[in-house]
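CUB domain-containing protein structure dump, as promised
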Amino acid sequence: MKNKYYYILIILFTFGISLFSQTAKGQTSYDSYGTYEDSPGRYYYHNTYSTFTISPTYPANASDYELVITFLEFDMECKYDYVSVYEENTLIGVYDCYKPAPIVIEGGNSARIVIDTDGNNTDNLNYDGYKIKWEVRGKKAFIPHEESYNSGYLPQASAYSANIGINNSTQGKGSMAYGSGNSSNGEKSFSGGEGIVSSSYANFAIGMFNSSQTGNLQSWASTDPVFEVGIGSSSNDRKNALTVLKNGKIGIGEDMYTDSQMSGSYKLFVNGGIRTTQVYVTKMPWADYVFDKSYELKPLAEVKEFIDENGHLPNVPIASEVEKAGVDLAEVNKLLLEKIEELTLYLIQQDEELKNQKALIEELMNR
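structure tokens r here:
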């Protein structure tokens, strides 16, 4: 029986050695942002020398960027196990007891993180290791003369511009992009949200995947937009909820974002229905001229002849014109009132004729 327990102890000891003597292989990431963890949640092994290298892809002007490494979790055996951080081959720091502050690597350089543990099996069962996140971001927090500010993942900012977020681009001087995948091409323009394009001078565009045509990038043009709200779902599905042009015209709904789509002298263009509890018009022609003594009321016979030849009332637009160009509601209301007032005059005339006929009939009957 003693021999049996002896062999069991040997097997358990051998299993423990194989479990806690593993050495993690080195890993490398070429991503410009991400996370990595060495053992959190499962405890790390003793006698381990594990490396993780971050060699990100930098933009062409790598010196304007920096690699920032942040420790999200840090749980090491104090004074026995260590985490070392290198910039290229230069040691930046060695950490054991406390979580390090964010580490900044010069743009263009790689970083290497090493976990080096001792042979103390028991203690390591109570420690989790570390977890980090990293990102490449613009390093200029203040904008000197003729320079730009970049922050986020691979932003591209030109002179006098600011760029915050992921994969944004600012080409115009004094422009700004905020969010993801946005482009501010016009000077003094802004794009914010996702997939937004601001393509004219002093244009402010927000939302998602707006419809925008390139306008004047360096000066004010009345037919270019000054404000846009995008509601698209992707780069292949671009549309606007609202567009305001620099001439004061406002377009609501899809396909209402260019001056050519907002033709005429009108100020509000809506693609879709309008529901409201009240519409009040302050300037509108009225048809009381029909009751003026000088108004020439057409005889009914002449009106009938016109209808027979043209298929509509005099002064009323034909159906094909309405279908093609629409109607002016104020003008239509005036025409409807004109016809109502003409109809009233016709009824008055007929009433007078009926009265005369009645009087004549009574006179004949009394003879």
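Confidence is low (pLDDT under 50) at residues 6-24, 141-147.
lmk if u need the other ones
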